Amino acid sequence: MEDKIKVYLADDHQMLIEGMKAVIKSNENFEVVGYSLNGVNLIEDVTISDADILIMDINMPKIDGIEVLKEYSRLKRPFKVIVLSSYDDLKLVREVMKLGARGYLTKQSAAESIIEALVEVTKGEEYFCKIMHEKILNSFVQNNQEWSQNKIVADINLTQRELVILKLIALEFSGKKIGEKLFISANTVETHRKNLLKKVNVKSSIGLAKYAIRNNLIDNLKGESDVID
Asked: pTM value?
C-alpha cells in the first residue's frame, strides 16, 4: 500500500477544521497530520509535520495567509498550498497563485471540492473550485457566447477552457502569458495546447491560429486583447 498524502490544515475556525478533517478522513489516500488556528503557529508547525499539502485560510489571526505564502516562497518550502477563502475575488486568486499556491477553494465549496482539489494538486495540476473556475473563464467568454456555441466547436468537442486557450493562441499570446491570465502554469497551458492540436488535427500553434481564422472564430475575438493586457 502506498503512503498516504499528508495534509495540514490552517483556519481560525475550529468547526471548519473539524469538518475538513472528517471529509479528508473519508478518503484512504489522504491523512490530516496537523492543524493551526493562526498564522504564527502555522509557520512553525507545518514544516515539522512533514506535510505534502497545506490547505490554508487567507484571513488568519497574527499573520495572514498572504504573508505566510510570501514566507514559504522565500524559504522555498516543498509542500503544495491550496488556498481556502470566503472571497471569490479574481485579484486575490491572481495574487496567491503568483505567490506559489496550487489551488483555490471558496469556503462554501470546500466540503464538495476538497478531495478533488487534493487529488488534482497531488498530480501536479492547479485546481479551482467550480465557482472560481467559471468566474475565471467567464471573464474571457462572457461577451462571446455565440462563438462558444459554434457548431465547429461542438463538432470537435472542445471544453470551455480549451475554447479560451484557442482564442489566446490565435491572438499570439505566449504560454506564459496565457498561464498568468488563467491562473495556471505554463506546463498546464502546454498540455491544453497539445490536446488542441490533436482535436483540431494540426501540427503547430500556427495551425491552430489558421484553424480559428478558417472557421470564422477570429471575428468573435473583438475586445479580447483589451481584457488580457
From this structure: 0.70
